[in-house]
């Protein structure tokens, strides 16, 4: 009788445990999730914006083959269904997509492992007389991007400085999404980083915006913000890093030249968002 009561009590405790909040009953075992570790961090930390440099059909074919992929693809003019723009999801967010390639941001490599990639159908650029001319993004495409980006940022608590251009994380290889991408407009919507105008003016300190500054000093600021800067870089490679930064934060002039305004913007960003 005593043994029966003991078994009954144990069974009662087990049933009670299974019904407790934080205890999950599985097939063949139970999970106790009531003691979460503090040393745990989200896998997704970065949102990367790209352009496809091709039309939609070719872009879709490329992004669904065996070599490259992206989580989302947004057409130049998204088709409307029930009053809402349609976006293509090509890879579930819990799976790795091969969109960043060889990359670096804020001390981290293998950005594919920790990012969500969004591709925008856009022709990219063409050269005329040696000058790159970029294709603008349609308002309807940006309007479709905004709610998607907001949801991703909220879902993974992505910091503003970690919403980046492909060119930011791979400046030696990539230009996308280019200087016509409306980073300032998106930052006003809570998507990505943007310097405060007052801080830029403070750091500019009355200098002419295009006054030359020390290239090494500027690159040090860009390195501290998050860009990949190494001692062995050639002048051409240094210029690519500065140009990527300017396309993002000073799109009116992205010549890759170290000047006072670029320096002031970098200092204002570091003040607002901290070092990488």
UniProtKB/TrEMBL annotation:
Signal peptide range in chain numbering: 1-20
Membrane-spanning segments: none
GO-annotated molecular function: N-acetylmuramoyl-L-alanine amidase activity
Residue intervals of the N-acetylmuramoyl-L-alanine amidase domain: 32-178
Family classification: Belongs to the N-acetylmuramoyl-L-alanine amidase 2 family.
Protein name per Swiss-Prot or TrEMBL: N-acetylmuramoyl-L-alanine amidase
Presence of the UniProt keyword Cell wall biogenesis/degradation in the record: yes
InterPro entries named in the record: Amidase/PGRP_sf, Amidase_domain, NAMLAA_amidase_2, PGBD-like_sf, PGBDSf
Keyword Electron transport belongs to the record: no
Keyword terms of this UniProt record: Cell wall biogenesis/degradation, Hydrolase, Signal
Pfam families, per database record: Amidase_2
Catalytic activity: Hydrolyzes the link between N-acetylmuramoyl residues and L-amino acid residues in certain cell-wall glycopeptides
Catalytic activity, EC: 3.5.1.28
């Amino acid at each position: 009788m005593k043994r029966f009561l003991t078994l009954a009590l144990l069974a009662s405790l087990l049933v009670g445990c299974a019904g407790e909040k934080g205890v999950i009953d599985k097939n063949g075992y139970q999970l106790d999730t009531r003691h979460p570790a503090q040393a745990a961090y989200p896998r997704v930390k970065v949102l990367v914006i790209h352009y496809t440099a091709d039309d939609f059909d070719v872009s879709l074919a490329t992004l669904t083959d065996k070599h490259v992929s992206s989580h989302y693809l947004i057409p130049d003019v998204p088709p409307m269904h029930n009053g809402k723009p349609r976006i293509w999801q090509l890879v579930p967010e819990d799976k790795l997509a091969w969109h960043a390639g060889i990359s670096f941001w804020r001390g981290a490599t293998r950005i594919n492992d920790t990012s969500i990639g969004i591709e925008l159908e856009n022709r990219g650029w063409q050269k005329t007389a040696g000058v790159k001319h970029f294709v603008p993004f349609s308002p309807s495409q940006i309007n479709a991007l905004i709610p998607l980006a907001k949801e991703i940022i909220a879902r993974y608590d992505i910091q503003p400085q970690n919403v980046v251009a492909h060119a930011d994380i791979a400046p030696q290889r990539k230009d996308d999404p280019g200087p016509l991408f409306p980073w300032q407009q998106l930052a006003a919507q809570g998507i990505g980083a943007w310097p405060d105008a007052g801080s830029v003016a403070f750091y500019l300190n009355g200098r002419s915006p295009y006054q030359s500054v020390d290239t090494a000093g500027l690159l040090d600021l860009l390195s501290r913000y998050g860009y990949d800067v190494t001692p062995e870089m050639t002048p051409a490679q240094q210029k690519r890093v500065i140009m990527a930064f300017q396309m993002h934060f000073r799109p009116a002039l992205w010549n890759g030249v170290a000047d006072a305004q670029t320096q002031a913007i970098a200092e204002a960003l570091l003040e607002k968002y901290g070092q990488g």
